[in-house]
Amino acid sequence: MKKVFYLSAIIILSGFIFTACEKENEDLTKPTIVINEPHEGEAIEPGEELHFEADIADDTELSSYKIDVHNASDGHTHSEAAGILKSIAHEGDTEEFSYLETFTDAAGKKNHHIHQHIDIPENAEEGEYHLTIYVVDKTGNEAHVTRGFVIEHGE
Ligand SMILES: [Zn+2]
Question: Quick check: helix, strand or coil at residue 54?
Answer without folding.
Answer: strand
